[in-house]
Amino acid sequence: MECRSVTVELPHRFGRKRIIEDISFQVRSGEFLTIVGPSGTGKTTLLRVMGGLTSPASGSVLVHGKELDGPPDNVVIVFQDYSNALLQWRTVAANVAFGIERILDRTDIEQRVRDALALVGLEKNAEDHPWQLSGGMQQRVQIARALALRPDVMLMDEPFAALDAMTKASMQDELFRVRDRTGTSFVFITHDIEEAVYLGDRIAVLKGSPGRIDQVFEIGLPAPRDQLSTRQLPQFLEFRYAVQQAIGR
Amino acid sequence: MTHSRLWRQYFTVVAAALPPARGMLPLVVLLGAWQLLQTGNSPYFPPPSDWCNGLVLLEKSGRLYPALLATTMTMLLGLAVAVVIGAGVGLLIGVSPRFSRAVGPLLEFLRAIPPPAIVPVAILFMGYDERMKLTVVVIAAIWPILLNTSSAAERIHPLLLDVAHSFRLSAVDRMRLIILPSVVPAILLGIRIALPLAIVVTLLVEILTSVEGIGALMIGAQRNFQSPQVYGLLVLIGLFGLFVNSVFAVFEAILLRRWPPKAQSENF
Amino acid sequence: MDERRFFAGINWPGTAVFVLVGLAWEVVIRSGLLEYEYLPAPSAIGLGLGQLAREGTLAPDIAHTLIAVAIGWTVAIAVGISLGFLLGLSPTARRYSLASIEVLRPMPGVAFAPVGLLLFGFSLKTEMVVTILPVLWPVLVNTMGGVSGVHPRLYDVSRTFRLSRKDTILHVILPAAMPPIVVGARISLSLALVLTVVAEMVGNPEGLGYGIVREQQALRPDLMFAYIVTVGFIGIVLNAGMLALAETVFPSSRQLRSPQ
């Protein structure tokens, strides 16, 4: 997946405001790319452009070399507000099936739903309704819904921001498990620098108004990553410092 | 889940929603006092026991049940039509801001006309028959349903629409899978508000025109100075309203069991 | 600059549709395109209004209806607020009366018309019988809800400042419960108008309600619609007036403009 010189303008009070400008980067296959930046720099806008929900004023987004024309097949967005992104009146299983129910036939759907639920550990909750579940579980339902499509790229907009620290930690590791088993690429937005360093293979720093990619860091931390030991490594702290500096400047 | 468990669940829901039975005390005391104090044959305030006799007389004359049936059928049919039209137009308004703005002032104007005022208009246009009665009920019941539906359709969380866009739903699928389920609680709320309205308008037409129904029976009894029957029918209407409302409340609770509890909250 | 915003704020497409429908209606009837014996053109309705005003029938009818509404509503809110207050303050009283209220509340006002006629014949009192009970409920229920819903923290505050019972009620509970009480009173007012008109249609042959029915029976649709429009207009004025009054006297009630 690739962004080439993407610029996005949105209607503002008296005309149009340039939200992000001249964004260019590539997302490698199987990579975990995190995007950090202070709030208001257009991180969500960038994600929406990549997901095909908004069109750029100039520049283009390409998936497998082809330009986007609306939401692409193999790219899925996971939103931060899980409660309003799920269909609360459907069961968990029906929610997970939402993306594929019009495309596949019955047996395939059932299989994919089962696989997706297994990936996020919610097999036992298939017949519950989202409003009966905790925040972390609801977010996992959304992730499962995305996974059921077997996407090439998962775009995640601060998905764990609304969760408590412990749930957040376990969800981060869950993402690693998913990545290891499916080989999906992740584009992960967060304002939590530690999360960005822990999760990312690369970190893109978005800052300024209009937002621009200031720096891209290669995170050379060893895999598999672990909540306790990785976060203690001196390189972890160095990366964290560097990213923090990049944002603060 | 076995059937008996489901039933028990539903009844606990209903029972919990009911106010405690001892709250009937004021009414019981009132009726009891009335019964005891009315010893003579007052034409104006017959005791409750006379009311029962009056009703029994009506039943024996064979006029009670047909009237009850007529009132109920008109009310239900009128509501059904009102739901279809009201929800349909409400969805249109809620989904399309342009349509909403265009139709807005016209609707505000029509809404200001109180439903009872429509009755003479309908009588003039359509004469004294069942069709007229039905039309009036539809016109009266439509507003709460339409307004609730349109307001809920406007308020669908934009994220849900993003999800629809992101999964590339066709407009039809979006309406069917996302918008319609989202507004179901609002439609039910609209029906709950429209129910007493439908009853009132049905009775009004019957009292005004003596078209078949409980209202017609009532005004007939009044003209013949049969006061026990008038009171008896009044109580009957009260019970009828209570029954219809509770049946609907149960129906609504059953239908809404898949929605988050907030959707079931009471709204004045 | 404010003018520009004002013009931008007007709903142009909506007003246009409204005006166009009115014009189309006028043209269609006038030109004879649609022969509907009982559907008058808007101009005819306007003329009808003028005629009624000139004949001197409109003003007394409006007065009668307004007086009836005023009496009914005043009695209803007096009883409703007092009872509502008592019930709101005492959970025991509530437990012993809630079921009765729930049973009586859905009683349609119009069903009381035959009873009223039986007791009082054709008179203002019949209108009261029809109006008062149903109009009682919105303000009673809202007062009860408002008073019982006063946040317990406020009670703590009044105890901390050692307020007497009377002062607590007057200075803490009453203002806190005002918004829903005002909303209830407003709903009751609209309801009072509707019920009074109903009572005049089936009970007491006087006032706007009777005007509607009278002209309907006389086969004068233009006058009938004139009366209906008057009723609608009065409804809007009453509602808006009450809103404005409430927000001036009790600014805290602005929080609750219910979208009824």
Question: Would you kindly provide a written description of the structure presented here, covering whatever features stand out?
Answer:
The complex is a heterotrimer of chains A (249), B (268) and C (260). In chain A, helix 4 (106-120) packs across helix 5 (135-147) and helix 7 packs across helix 8 (234-248). Chain A has 249 residues and is α/β, with parallel strands linked by helices. Chain A folds into 2 domains: 2-74 and 152-248, P-loop containing nucleotide triphosphate hydrolases (Rossmann fold); 85-150, no CATH class. In chain A, helix 6 (165-182) links the parallel strand 7 and strand 8 (185-190). In chain A, 34% of the residues lie in helices and 26% in strands. Chain A is built from 8 helices and 10 strands. Chain A has a 6-stranded mixed sheet with strand order 6-7-8-3-9-10, with helices on both faces. A 4-stranded antiparallel sheet of chain A has the order 2-1-4-5, covered by helices on one side. By secondary structure, chain B is mostly helical. Chain B has one domain (51-264): MetI-like fold, CATH 1.10.3720. Chain B has helices spanning 3-17, 25-37, 48-60, 64-95, 97-111, 115-126, 130-154, 158-166, 171-209, 214-223, 227-255. In chain B, helix 4 (64-95) packs antiparallel against helix 5 (97-111), helix 7 (130-154) packs antiparallel against helix 9 and helix 9 runs antiparallel to helix 11. The longest helix of chain B has 39 residues, at 171-209. Chain C is an all-alpha fold. Chain C folds into 2 domains: 1-36; 46-255, Orthogonal Bundle (MetI-like fold). In chain C, helix 4 runs antiparallel to helix 10 (165-202), helix 4 (58-89) packs across helix 11 (207-217) and helix 7 (113-120) packs across helix 8 (124-148). Chain C is globular and about 75 Å long.
List keywords for this structure.
heterotrimer, A: alpha/beta, Rossmann fold, 2 domains, six-stranded mixed β-sheet, four-stranded antiparallel β-sheet, 8 helices, globular, B: 268 residues, mainly alpha, MetI-like fold, 11 helices, 0% strand, disordered C terminus
Helical element count of chain A?
Answer: 8
The CATH class of the largest domain in chain A: Alpha Beta
Quaternary structure annotation:
heterotrimer
Per the CATH scheme, the topology name of the largest domain in chain C is MetI-like fold
| N-to-C SSE string of chain A, H for helix and E for strand | EEEHEEEHHHHEHEHEEH
